[in-house]
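INFO worker-7 received task bundle
INFO bundle size: 2
INFO processing item 0
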Amino acid sequence: KMASDSPESLMTLCTDYCLRNLEGTLCYLLDNETLRLHPDIFLPSEICDKLVNEYVELVKTDSIFEPHESFFTLFSDPRSTRLARIHLREQIVQDQDLEAIRKQDLVELYLTNCEKLTAKSLQTLVSFSHTLISLSLFGCCNIFYEEENPGGCEDDCLVNPTRQVLVKDFTFEGFSRLRFLNLGRLIEGVNVETLLRPLASLAALDLSGIQLNDVGFLTQWKDSLVSLVLYNMDLSEEHIQVIAQLRKLRHLDISRDHLSSYYKFKLTRRVLNLFVENLVNLTSLDISGHTMLENCTIPSMEEKMGQTSIEPAKSSIAPFRGLKRPLQFLGLFETSLCRLTHIPAYKVSGDKNEEQVLNAIEAYTEHRPEITSRAINLLFDIARIERCSQLLRALQLVITALKCHKDDKNIQVTGSAALFYLTNSEYRMEQSVKLRRQVIQVVLNGMESYQEVTVQRNCCLTLCNFSIPEELEFQYRRVNELLLNILNQSRQDESIQRIAVHLCNALVCQVDNDHKEAVGKMGFVMTMLKLIQKKLADKTCDQVMEFSWSALWNITDETPDNCEMFLNYSGMKLFLECLKEFPEKQELHRNMLGLLGNVAEVKELRPQLMTSQFISVFSNLLESKADGIEVSYNACGVLSHIMFDGPEAWGICEPHRDEVVKRMWAAIQSWDINSRRNINYRSFEPILRLLPQGISPVSQHWATWALYNLVSVYPDKYCPLLIKEGGIPLLKDMIKMASARQETKEMAR
């Protein structure tokens, strides 16, 4: 069993079920709109935290899941529902949601990129001040803004009813237990020093993406601060001196995105030496994206040869020879240092090899999509050119990044491309069902959120790596809707169109009739006919044209509703036009006649095929040598069903019924009984119904020939089918019939 294949925990399954069925489980609807908790429900924080965090995850990553206006009000009373640690993200959370849970004693509150939160929520935070230990406001860019109504509102109100004003007087006064704080991407204009001053003993502080020219105030926590993140801050000598005084630091991140803007600061040997000498507890350091002003490397002659080593004494980076022990983590992404031989760290992020690249994706996904997309791009190259050695880890990291940054175009493009290479056949054996389903989910999410050509193409290509329809069965409706959506767009990319039609065709091949009916109702038949119409207008018969007819052949198989739709949307007109425009295209003829064979099996629809024009066309196709016997065989099949309705149903003068019958006999006799076939029967029922009748001996003969050919050329597949569907007694009875032709009886015997 594979590591990732263990089933979900019962807790996870129950949480998921309750969230998808709130009304049937924990809640009832008040006045048909507000969700209310049943009065006898009491839930501890272990369950409530999971409900809230899973809810956020579902709203974010599951397009079918509907968010509830009043969800957070379920947790407004700590006497029945307790919350302690919750992680909220993006647009899902608004001021009133936080307001609803203000009575809870939260210990940990992560608000990540919650752009809808305003200064109203700052006031709500105060209600948690006596219990909060951990707080993240990362990317909450409006939380320090309040709306101000301009005084003396005359005409001005209509133009500018509310103005955004920066809140200047908020501080963390009273947050006596707060130890961990993330203010990443805080908007300019907020005085960080004043904001933080009341905090007695900070242990971790993240100031990512904030530019502070004076960080001297950090020394007030020099006895408590163990983690400091200054990502993308342009540093100076003053910053370095302050950092060197924070002796308790275990984790220091001064990395930057080297593409984001101009930085004056350059790293030197002296700065690294200063860190190593002063920050003796350091276990994790990130200097990704920095340019080294001078060479910090040990000359290669002096390097100890042999195995690569993480021993500080052998370090290829000179300043790190002073470390007491190897670092747990060293961030060197997009620096020249990551390519050196001996790096004194257990985990290194960089761009040298798969391990370093995966470490980078893992470390930066949550808060640094701009870096992550470049790391995934490197992984894409590794997966494409070499072989991935940590496949499961790579897949899981890419899935996480795609889920986390559903609206980030760069990540969607590089991630979907990487997935294509990571799911292809050579990696197939190593992947569990659960993992492959997760891939399908994120691929469909990508197709849903992005009309962008590259993402659509990558997603469609990735789906081609799966066994269709089996592996897509669990998302059957959704995947069909998305593909039809792509095919119905007015402007289309040729390659996407080709892949999408191929997928549609595969999805309706060998599936149950209820699936086919459902897809038919989604507009499948209409979509395919539109594609055929377009191709016909361009006079091109390409794969799209052939796949479209093939898909119609598949979707009409034993599905009368779809056959009727085909006729109602002038399918026959298109059939005749295609036949005339492309007289030499054998594949096309086979697909079109296979489809008409399905239509002819439906008794109620046969009268619509009873016109001089159609009957002449079918009769002439009896002589066709296209695709072996397939076109002739299918034409004869169509006519066999029509003949089965008897002479009184023959409502045309030309061609004459007897003349057509004669041509049918001649055609059947010309076929080689050992022909290998380009056809796939799921059921013999439509053929078997032509056996017990005396009205049309030629139809009986065609049916017997078909069965004889299939069971003799493919005995393993078709003998069991013939027995299972009761064919043997039908053949025995037919041999006794006076009206049956001698050669038919011979074949039946």
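INFO item 0 finished
INFO processing item 1
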Amino acid sequence: MGKIDDKKKKFKGKKKVKNVLEKKAKGLKLNKIDRKRIVKIEEKAALKSQVNKAVKEALEKQVKNSSTSIFDNDGTRDSLCSESSFGSQPAPKKKSKKVLFSGELEHVKVFDKRVHDLQIEPSKASPGRGILRSPLDKKVKKLPKTVKVADEEESVAPPKKKLKVSTKKAVVAEPAEEDNLESVDEQTGADESLVDVPKLKRKRTPIQVTKSVKEQLLNMPRKERKQFLRELKLKRKPEGERAQKCKVLWEKIRMGKTPKSEKDEAIHELYGLVKGHASKLIYAHDTSRVIECLVATEREGIINNLFNELTPEIVRMSKNVYSKFFVKKMLKNGTKEQRDLIINAFRGHAPTLLRIKHAAEVLEYAYNDFANAHQRYNIITEFYGKEFILFREDNIRSLTEILAEKPEKKTVILKHLDEIIGAVNEKETLRLSILHKLMLDFFENCDEEKKVNLLDSLKDKIPEFIHTPDGARLAIKLIWFAPVKERKLIVKNFKDLSVKAAMEHYGHRVLQALFDTVDDTVLLNKVIVSELANEMKKLIEDDWGEKVIHYLVHPRDARGIDKREIAFLAEGDSNPHSKKTQADRYGQLYAAITENLYPYLAANFEELVFEANKHKFVAACLETTSSYDLFDRQVPSEARKSCNEAIVELAKKDFVPMDQEGFHIIEHPSGNFVLSAIMRCDSALPEDERLSVALAEGLTKQQIGSWVTCNRGCHILLKMLQVGGPKVVEKLKASINRKHLDGYTSKGANHLKAQLDGKITK
């Protein structure tokens, strides 16, 4: 404690400075960085002083060269004398006139800083509010400037915003509601800077009119002018008044507190307004939602009538950012006939729709979620050329089969596919399953040069399209085709995405292909396997994530993945760029996952076996190497012992046959399966790693002897007698009460009696 107090006293009086200049002034020690900062600060200060001095000199020179009178801040002209000719009273100041436009617009002058010696006279136009005033002028504030000349202090008019009026066409804005607006005063100095006008968040849309109309507006009274502008707006938006009424009714319908009777009336009134005008209202951001509201009412008559009215607009609506939602709602909630009508409307337009962002989204929604196999085939074949649009086939065939029958069309079809892929694979449409199907067909049938070009364009984007079956299949084939350098780049692109890919229905297959193909296991462990190991709980609880971990433990194991997937992955074994043997590659990947896998199993053994239903996965992880394994897989000794200890702790619980609160591990189906599977491997393990030995040493005789009351418990005891050593056999014989055992006639009890009597051999 004494040393700590001394340190506190030592640093108690340390000087604190705000910046390096204060540090220099106090004489503190400066390092190299501090000295550089001081030099920069001094250079900036010197430059600033020079600029200020030059500006001051320029202003003084301008004032001296000006006329004998100058304008005050309020726009009036005062004499240079301090007193007027009427005595000691100051001369009365004239009020400034609020003028925006003169009678003749061609005489309006645009002021510029470069113009000198201006002759400025006050405007003679009648005062009043101008209709061309921008809403931004409300925020203009006068900023007075003072310049000292000799012993007198004169005020200079504040700088103003530039005002430029074209003689051909003017922009007219709506008049503001406030009457007391500040007018734009006369310009007083060509050399003064302009005022920075703050930008408003919302600007009014200007209405463009000709010069004659603008002059007519200038001579109109305020009320007539507002009415005239309102009529101009209505001409520009003829459905504006109808849209406003629709939105009022829409708000009434969507409110929860509206009574049902009023809501029904509002729905019928709203449909009456929309009927016959839906094709014009559907494309606006607000009225499109009104029509969607009518669809959401689930009234078949209204929905069918709206759909029939908008049927000719299906393709156009699919291209619009707002109306596309109506098409998607009809695909989701419409009848089968309406869906077929929408999908048939896309005939001949699929290549065009895929190039447009919003239309591609609608086409994908119809193709992926609602189209049947024949409709999907018709959509895909449209990308093969115009011939397939005009002449559709009844039989569904792949592109390989089509080219095998008509090889002369290969060049034309692949050219069409190359164009559409090159046009859209740089956009957001890369995630669409239609494009994945087209790219897969193209890759499987093009020549070597085209494959290289496709690989170059997609090697950085593989994680973006592995969520579909065709996209995952294309990604796997690209990995097989890619050279070593490109494979490393593909692996690096999975950084921070490995866990998400492992939990994908189809994306997890791409990771399995990487484990089969990439020779750089150090990079794989660093980028992918380490991320998987850190999220062990999340992956094991997920069905697809469990398959990835199982593949690292048991690659190409039919218990973990389907046999058809194994056959497909085996196609990549013959690729020319993989040189490392499978045993070495799988062994190095397995060594990286064991550090996190087995501690997690030991810590969560009860949850995995009893609740998560992962008993097959646990048993597979603790098995010894078999003839079906592709490498010599050895569970670390300490990891196996920790798992055995976790099992012993579960087995120590009091055994109650058919316990309603929860089965004992001996009687639980999953627990009994795990015990049997692990004990089956005891004969190939050292004695200190055997589960049978751990159970015999960790349990009392009473605990072991109670298992004979259960059929499954008798089978576990039988297995321990068969695979355990002499110590285990001796412990079991001393624990089993033969008279108690003779009272049971289950199949397991009969086998156990025969084993104890020496009638059954191992």
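INFO item 1 finished
INFO post-check item 1: Residues 32-65 form the longest helix (34 residues).
INFO post-check item 1: Confidence is low (pLDDT under 50) at residues 1-13, 67-91, 96-109, 125-198.
INFO worker-7 idle
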